[in-house]
Structure formats: structure tokens, C-alpha cells
Amino acid sequence: MKPITLLVLSKPTARHLALLDKLPHSTRIVVGDNAEMFAEAAPEAQVLMNGMMPKTLFHDVFVQCKNLQWVHSLSAGLENSLFPELVASPLPMTNSRGVFARSLAEWVITGCLYFDKFLARLAAQKAAHEFKAFDVEELHGKTMGIVGYGRIGQLTAERAKAFGMKVIALRKRPELSHGDHNIDATYTPEQLERLMGESDFVVCAAPLTPDTEGLINAKAIAAMKPTGVFVNVGRGAVVDEEALTIALQQKKIRGAALDVFVTEPLAKESPLWDLDNVLISPHSADHTATWLNDAMELFVENFDRFVHGHPLKNVVDKAAGY
Asked: Residue 118: what pLDDT?
């Protein structure tokens, strides 16, 4: 097989790119953050990777490529990597699905404990040098509803079960959860409000697609228990953020733990900042010390599979968006 040309859309100084040294020495690697940097190599490139760069750049480089055989997204989410020409093409596309799921699942549990163990109150009492006992709650026996039961949802369910929680999950194809001992029931998207109403903690772990945009709307939020907590580690635009904010302001629900938002960075004037029943994370719940290296390791493994003609891992459904 002749040497492979790989195009990598990324800041050239990104430290995780050092793992590209693991690729065969014959590989021609071109790294850049603007379309002009790929003009000479694009026509012969067989592999194109989007290293979390804007969709416009990905598109502009993609259309220059005439001999691509495989496209990869270093991100798990595909909203910045899908456009009509790519979706319509027969090219296989892979992503980093599952690579970041473990830390995100841990953060979900953190968000639940933040409310049930009253961590904000503990911090306030410490700051005030106030030693005042109070009652706390348990996750044990409570119900977690998970919207989007991919790898993040699955690992979250596993951890929730360890705390003795009941877990219900919503997914487009419930039959895929047959035999999963970490969930007690599986609902379809048409049963969203039922899931919201039965859950003490609603966890959104859904990808952003045309089908999921705005899925958690005002009506769904209104179906939640007054004691319910909403946790989002999926994508901000899956939720009607204005409706959620109003529900939180009016104390219609107990609280929210949010790692993602419709617009990021979250605007300084957003009312979410000032609400005492909201835990905010700057879309970094999966930013472990090795998160980008872990994503690159998966790509390197897939590259070896590609070279040897073996099936690729994490092939996505481009039409579905995940």
C-alpha cells in the first residue's frame, strides 16, 4: 500500500498531536488551522480528521479532497463535523464516542450529590465558620431518568445502580437495552414527559441532532417533580434553556447541574450565574488530564485498523447524527 496522506484540522502546537508519532513513519501528516494550509496535500489525502475545529473549516478542506477513504472527528459530538456533502457521501466516519464517558458519568453523580448532601450549604457554613448540623438526603431509593442512553448514559446508569438508585432510560431504539441489568425500564421519545415526571434526577446525555434539538422543552420541564433536579452533560441546545431558567427562577424544580449550554461561553449576563439552585461547569466535566490523549489513542488504533483493512471502531450513522 502506498504511503497515506493524513490531514489534521487542529492548532499545529496542540500537545496531543505528539501521539501522531505512533503512526507509520511513511505517513504524510499535514496539520493546519486554515484551508489554505491543505491546498497542496488535499487532492491526494486518504484520511481527514477534524480535531475539534469549526465546521466551516472542515467543510472547506473536505471539498478540496478527491481521494478520501475515511473521515474522523476527534470530538464525540458531531454537530461541528456534519454537513450535507459529507452526510451524502459513502465515506465511513468515526468519532470519539465513549472516550470521555467515564468522567462525565462521575460528574453526573457529583451533581446529584451536590444537591442531596447540600454541598453549597456546607461551603457557606465553612466560609462563615458556622458549625451547625442539618439533615441530608440519600441517592439510595431515588429514581434517575436518563435521556439519551449511549455510552455516557450507560456508565451513568452503572454508577447510579451502585448507589441503590432506580434507573429508567429513554432511547430511540429501546430494544437495544434488552438484557441491560443497570436499568429498570426503557422509554421511547414519545414517553419523555412520563420519564421526566417519574424521575428525582433527570440526566440529559443526548447528542445534538435535528431530532433532539429542543427536545427538553417547557412542557417536559413542567412535568418534572418540584423536588426534581435536572443534570445536563449532553448538549446545551437539546434543552430549552429559557424555559429551564424560568423553572429554576420560580423554584418549579429543585435545581440543575449544567456542564453544557446553548451558547458557550455562558454569557456573563445569563441569569443562571446568580441562581443559588444551579451548579455550573464550563463544559469541562470530561476534561481529565488525559482526555485529548485518550481521544488520540483511539484514532491511532483506528488508523492501524485502516492501514490493515480491518473494521473501524466507532463508525457513526451520519444521517442520524451520532
From this structure: 98
Query: Can you list the alpha helix ranges (DSSP code H) found in 48-150?
Result: 55-62, 84-88, 101-116, 119-127
Question: Which residues does 37 contact at the CB level (< 8 Å), separation at least 6?
Answer: 30, 31
- pLDDT computed for residue 1 by the predictor: 64
- List, by residue number, the catalytic residues: 235, 264, 283
Query: Within a domain: residue 314?
Result: no
Q: Which residues have a Cβ under 8 Å from the Cβ of 239 and sit 6 or more positions away? A: 204, 214, 215, 216, 230, 232, 262
The beta-carbon contacts of 135-141 under 8 Å, at least 24 apart in sequence, are 139/109, 139/112, 139/113, 139/163, 139/164, 139/165, 140/164, 140/165, 141/165, 141/166
Residues 6+ apart with CB under 8 A from 74: 10, 49, 50, 51, 52, 95, 96, 292, 295, 296, 299
3-state DSSP call for residue 257?
strand
**Phi, psi of 187, deg, nearest 5:** -115, 155
Beta bridge partners of 257: 231, 279
pLDDT of 43-94, one tens digit each? 999 999 999 999 999 999 999 999 999 999 999 999 999 999 999 999 999 9
Instruction: Kindly state the DSSP code that residue 19 receives in the 8-state scheme.
Output: G
254 and 226 Cβ atoms separated by less than 8 Å: yes
Give pTM, 2 decimals. 0.95
Instruction: Specify whether the CB–CB gap between 313 and 94 falls below 8 A.
Output: yes
| CATH of residue 250 | 3.40.50.720
Q: What local confidence, expressed as pLDDT, does residue 2 receive? A: 80
Give the domain range for residue 112: 101-280
Residue 207 has a CB neighbour count (10 Å cut-off) of 22
Q: Do 143 and 30 reside in the same domain of the chain?
A: no
The CA-atom distances, in angstroms, between 35 and each of 7, 9, 165, 185, 265 are: 11, 9, 50, 48, 25
Tally of domains within the chain:
2
| Interval 127-168: pLDDT, tens | 999 999 999 999 999 999 999 999 999 999 999 999 999 999
